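Hi R.,

Here's the chain you asked about this morning:
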Amino acid sequence: MKILSLSLLAVFVCVNIAFAATFMAKENFTVKDEIPNDAYLAGQQININNQINGDLIAVGGDILINADVAGDVNIAGGQISVLGNIGDDARMAGGKITIKNSVQGDVIIFGGDVAIENSAVIDGDLIVRAGNIIMSGLVKGKMNTASSSVIVNGAIEGNTKIEAGTISFGQNAKIGGNLEYSTNQAQLDLSETQVAGQIIYHQKLTKKTNEKEENTFKSYISKLTEHLGFFIYSILSAILLLIIITTIDRSFFTEAAKKLNISFSSNIPKGLLYFIATPIVGFLFMVTIIGLPIGIFIIAVYTFTIYLAKVVTAITLAKLIDTQHKMKWSKGWIFFISLLLFIALKVIAFLPIIGWIINLVIICAAFGALIETKMERVKKVL
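And here is the predicted structure, written out as tokens:
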């Protein structure tokens, strides 16, 4: 009962969180007006020139943040430049990433070239996995980096751990805690670098160990790429399906959303019954020669609905938000919100056990409402 309650709570949180946010999706655009809540942005070129008073979630080619963000920042892009202040944590992934101002939380970066400019101040920890790193700013917490090349010409008040092919320290480098490093170079001369704590040097690994770690790393990257590729493929497939479905019959999903709005929980058993009973009925038909074609057809339709389950559920939830708050969204907005909800369902599914339960509850509720809507339409025809 507690799990069910938690699942239902997660559903309503996911549904209502989308309402309390600002969505923008264009090829190129500039945020000129202040955003009072969370911002979800997607585009090839994104310029943020006014304050965001919540979290920022952005995906794009080139992303330029010229203004302050009050909450967390989660960004994936080709080139990312942060010139404004960030009020909480920052998580970024991109080809080239530059931070020139203050971040009042932790910073986690995966990228190609990463530059923390001398004007940057990070109040929390700095964690970077990148090709090349230049750290010229101030880190008030710890720093943990791994890359091909690391240049430190700023101050780190906490412990510092660096793993890199080449490491160099500039004349302004200061470390307030311990320095732990490993490199392919000979042991570094740190006589002119201010290190308050201990200096711990890990010698170069043997060739055999290096080869083993390299193979393990390649295997990990291969699996990660495979999972990421499948995830991107599923997103692209969902985009195509969403475009098709949202243009076919909007009223059908609107009717289902109204039923879901009246009673969310009562639709869960109906959807669950469909997913359990349909394959049983199909296999029962396949027992006899006469019923074999019908059984194959039922199983084929059932398989197709399983494939479409998250997409159809996302559209139904988008229409639910639209119905609850009387937004009167256009097809474009329904598509965009549906895509965000689809991605949310995919991400939640990565959580062991509880993620699957939440997905099951949401999908069963949506399908229960859709099945009831379809049955009512059939009754009207008959």
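One quick note: The chain has two domains: 106-204, 212-381.

Cheers,
M.
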